[in-house]
Amino acid sequence: MNYSNAVTAVESARKILITTHIRPDGDAIGSAVALRRAICTKASGRERNPSVEILFLGEVPQVYQFIATEPVLLWGREVTEEQVQAGRLEEYDLIIVVDTSAIRQLPGIGEYLQKRQKGVLVIDHHLSGDGIGHIRLIDTGACAAGELVYGLIRQAGWPLDKTAAAAVMTAIGTDTGWFRFENASAKAFRIATELIEAGIAADDIYQQIYLSDPPERLRLLGMVLETLEILCGGRLSLIHITRDMLNRSGAKRSHIENIVNVPQQIGSVIAVALLVEEEDGGTRCSLRSKSLVDVNAVARQFGGGGHARAAGLTIPEGLPAAKAKILAALSRELE
Questions:
Q1: Does the N terminus or the C terminus of the chain have fewer Cβ atoms within 10 A?
Q2: Same-domain pairing of 204 and 141
Q3: How many domains does the structure of the chain reveal?
Q4: What's the predicted TM-score (pTM) here?
Q5: Which residues neighbour 169 within 8 Å (Cβ) at sequence distance 6 or greater?
């Protein structure tokens, strides 16, 4: 991976905006926080310090707030679609997009980024994308966007303090299922070793992310497990979440993260689909697989995408109709 153009772009910029996909997860948040921290620490004490801001297109889930402690811009609050159309983002010399290059995951700003003539750096590891960015650090073999951010920081020689190191660990740890998934490469383990040697407490980070759930999430999980269906001779599992389930449990939409992984504990299950009823009546679907099924290929049939073992999509129909379509698509893959 050649980082030289990215390093030059960052070091020559005076005002930088870092953003990521809607519904930011651990990799998105960790990558953005680590990058801002490294750039700002590098510039500390210099006569010309760059201004570096983060724009999140959704609320930061509670489990990740321990790394996102500094002020950020929030879509719909500090930045709106009307402002973007009026030129609000033109003030930034460089806009860095981490953990996606898909316009559908950047509502309100995706088309602007695609049309912008210069000053867009994309750092991503997903198979699907729309070619945005004038400088692209894209490696579909990377375990997480955090791996590429770490490589950029090291290649540039920017300092990596404990805050940035914890953010990188969050990014890589969450996208590899805390080093349990197929993408947990030898490089991922080497980076984790270097981060621990830099002084982070990996067990503390794990507890913050995975052992800090509110009771409402456990209530929601109980309801979800009651929807469990085992199909295709035990190889496919379907679960779903309705708006009513969220209301009755008191859970937030951010509490849905990682629930899709639970049915994978069943030995015979190869593929899992979690369908979530959206506020607009559509259905969001998360797909996972252990082997055999390329869920990215399935997701792309519906305009979504991701990775071979983890992908997502949205169907602009109600849950019953969406379920029928997903069941048919996954059943074909399991034939």
A1: C
A2: yes
A3: 2
A4: 0.91
A5: 30, 192, 195, 200, 202, 205
